[in-house]
Amino acid sequence: MAQNHHLLKDPDDPYIRKILEQNIKGEQCAIQVYSELLEFTKERDPITHNTVLQILTDEVEHEDDLQALMEDLEVRKL
Ligand SMILES: [Fe+2]
Q1: Comparing C-alpha atoms, which of 65, 78, 59, 61 is closest to residue 1?
Q2: pLDDT at position 41, please?
Q3: What's the 13 CA to ligand 1 centre distance in angstroms?
Q4: What is the mean pLDDT of the chain?
């Protein structure tokens, strides 16, 4: 991905940090929405509940990946 390539070339670029922060916020927002949906579908609609759980698992993974990138950025700055 072009952004990752940029990240590797110039870890001090503040734009990269900003993009990462925005994307992490986006993932956290998705996690919040799907968590509420998970609760709502619980004991109402098991099929949808299961689908929402799978999506939520993906979103948590996305956030973890982005947080790991952010930590890499911190390490490179030291
Ligand atoms: Fe996501």
Answers
A1: 65
A2: 98
A3: 23
A4: 88
Cα of 23 from ligand 1 centre, angstroms = 8
- The rounded distance, in Å, linking the Cα atoms of 25 and 27 is 5
pTM, two decimal places: 0.80
Evaluate if residue 61 carries a pLDDT over 50. Answer: yes
Tally of CA atoms within 13 A in the half-sphere of 50 that contains its CB: 2
**Cα 27 to averaged position of ligand 1 atoms, centre (Å):** 5
For residues 77 and 71, what is the distance between their CA atoms, to the nearest angstrom?
10
CA of 72 to the centre of ligand 1 (A): 19
Percent of the residues in the chain that have a pLDDT greater than 70, as a whole number:
83
